[in-house]
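Hello forum,

I keep getting stuck at the same step: I have a sequence, I want structure tokens, and every attempt I make locally crashes halfway through. Rather than fight my setup again tonight, could one of you with a working pipeline run this one for me? It's a single chain of 486 residues.
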Amino acid sequence: MTMRQEVLMKMLKMAGLALAVTLAGCGSDSDNHDAPPPAAAKKNVLFFLGDGMGITTLTAMRIFEAGEAGSITIDTLPETAFVRTYSADGQVTDSAPSMAAYMTGVKMKNEVISMSTGTNAYAPDGSQYVDADGNSTCEEGNGASVETLLELMKGQGFATGVVTTTRVTHATPATTYAHICNRNGENTIAAQMVPGGDGFNAALGDGVDVMLGGGRRHFLPADQSGRRTDGRNLIEEMQTAGYQYVDNTDALMGVADDTEKLLGIFTSSDMSYELDRIPTQEPSLAEMTGKAIDLLSPRDNGFFLMVEGGRIDHALHATSAKRALTDGIAFDNAVKTALEKMEAIDPGLENTLIVVTADHDHTLVINGYAERTGKTTEDHAGVLGMVRNYANGPNKGVPRTDVDGNPYTILGFGNGPNRPATRVALTETETAADDYLQEAVIQLSSETHGGGDVFLGAVGMGADVFHGVIDNTEVFGKIKAALDLD
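Reply #2:
Ran it on my machine without issues. Output:
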């Protein structure tokens, strides 16, 4: 055999081997029809909302918990962005339209819950579209509902859950499952939650699968310590619709993980601040988050879970920095719990997107040229203390003073209730006390929101689309794209 013939034979053998491999990989037409298609991976979205957790609050949380050079869980999220929060009619937003923008992709007016941009929360005479008992008086034709992320995912077979430390009918949780022209119609919002009941939001299908938080008063009639004027007991109606009901920590933690529907209402109004919480009566935000994941994650088609640290905002309105930061760290612990659980369920978070952000800012400020304090402990005020001199020399560590010679705190507010007519010398024992209210520049009965951008952090499936400066309405579309939802 000539060398040319040998080369030709080798080429033919190689070609035959390649053809055999190809045929083996393809199989027959019959084999292809019989083989099941690859199972689609379950996709999950966990959306964390620290209500009022502006960037200054987030910074103060870090110093409070870990010191200036330390980190909290939120700091570890790899993808980050700044979010603009203005509403359709306000430079400074309230929680309703800002959270609704995340959940619907639509700008709306202040106090409006998941409705079209032109919806009004106030009548032409300036009165709110709600009565004194918390019933909506929205007029027909005043705007239209817009689809929420929870409704969209529910309609495509995902399990859904809502967890909050506020009333479950409060603005932030309500934007996920309800539609109303004024956020204060909480009796009406509650009715939208009850499958088959009068006023039920049919877009929820068989209802939100897991609902945990406070707000029992909007589920019960007046003769049962509630605020309902229609005589309905919505808790009993939810139980009739298939929900297991729990009202304390032990009952919640004892719920079986194969429970299909769960309603947990732990307080009459909002849940307690973390600083005041009685653990046996009210679960922590981390405990509620963990239980919700345990219930939702086994479902066949993935899940959507919204978790709100709602009382951060309430403490800031009161100018109670200690309670705001303590609730902020409780929120951060819930994020940590979710990351740990989801990493075990979905290693690398390849099919799970976790987003952590805030709905708006507050007027909290970090004052003066303070020396570093490190973290706050029981016997060290830290960031809750006084501005002290950082410079070397005999005055290092000595409190700095105002023009009248009085020391002042590191944390303060642009407005709020504590505006003394005459400032007096304060001690760190006073300023680190549980009930101390930081001083404000402008005296108001309650501190207001601020208009600054907020932080957004994300990790997992599709998280790399979150970067730069974005509008709050863009978040909705980015989450949909990560899920490949139409």
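The chain is about 30% helix and 15% strand. If your local run keeps crashing, start a new thread with the error log.
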